Amino acid sequence: MATLLDDRSREVLKSLIQLHIATGEPVGSESLARSLNRSLSPATLRNIMSDLEKLGYLTHPHTSAGRMPTDEGYRVYVDSLMRQPLPARDALAIDSELRPRQGSSSEVLETASHLLSRLSRNVGFVVAPALGGTAFRHIDLVRLVHPRVLVVMVSRTGLVTHKVIELEEEMDQDQLQACANYLNTHFAGMTLSAIQARLLDLMREEKTLYDSLLKRVISVGERAFASEGEGASVYLDGTSHILEQRGFEDMDRMKALFKTFEEKSRLVKILNACISGSGIRVIIGHENPDPDLHDLALVTAGYPLEGEAGWGLGVLGSTRMEYARVMSLVDHVARSLATALEERRT
Q: What is the pLDDT of residues 68-87, one digit of tens each?
């Protein structure tokens, strides 16, 4: 439908949406005329606004003389009406907070969600894939007091996980290193679920009975690569920002929304649907897959990986969010986070 708009109608729609984003109020013809420096008369603007309403881009709430954008109006605005680079100070802040080498991968992901929230004044989130769908890159095994062994595992995306396992057979550090070398040589690039299947195959092979190294590898591997039912991780920051948004005074609606935030499996399913594919994606109002998010908008960036589950991040907030700025913010955080994770795996 956007092709039905001439340049003048596009400019009016753009200005009206920007005024509504700034004020949260319905926009009347007089305030819109002032915004356009009176290049169009209030009477002309009323006619154009009426036409935009008929096309489904504006709505006329209650008895107000002003109009507000619909989800469809925001969609036109997002798709074709604005461009805005991220301010240099924000880009520098993002890079300086994400790029230091110290800190675990989970701390980096948590920092990314905090940056998205702080710089957008909305909810920021990062979704990391379930462990079983992650491609393995490298493993280190460190001997602790028997029967405990520290496992340090690096995924292909640069995520680093630590876990302590227990082994029946006591092994010295040289034997553990031999197991790690075997695992790194034969399993690098495979997902954890595929590795578990391969270990089961090795257990069934008779040569295992005569190969002490392979027996140790299987013993270590089946414990080190056990996903223990872990699902995707969600790093969420800034849910209180929703309460500050105009138009979110309905307590029943707020309870339903915060219940969604608290139900991890449901939240992961919603967010994964929104971050599918690559590049920046904007989901507005009723485009959201969950009814409890129909008053909200999401700006997301997916990071798909061939042969394994990828990660994604984004911002969730009112449909009145500053889309141009938030899209630039999400894009920069995604790029900076990818670089930070890459640096941690090299």
A: 999 999 999 998 766 678 88
Q: Helix 7-23 to helix 42-54 angle, to the nearest 10 degrees? A: 90
User: Can you give the pTM of this predicted structure?
Assistant: 0.76
Burial of 215 (0-12, 13-18, 19+ CB in 10 A): middle
Cα 319 to Cα 24, 27, 75, 292, 322: the distances in Å are 10, 16, 10, 14, 9
Which architecture, in CATH terms, is 2-80?
Orthogonal Bundle (1.10)
Amino acid at 176: L
Tokens of 221: 């591997």
Task: Indicate the domain borders of the chain.
Answer: 2-80, 88-129+233-345, 132-224
How far is the C-alpha of 78 from the C-alpha of 163, rounded, in Å? 44
CA–CA separation, 205 and 201 (whole Å): 7
Could you count the other beta carbons within 10 Å of the beta carbon of residue 96? Answer: 10
- Supply the CATH classification number for the domain 88-129+233-345: 3.30.450.40
CA distances from 146 to 71, 93, 139, 142 (A): 61, 45, 19, 11
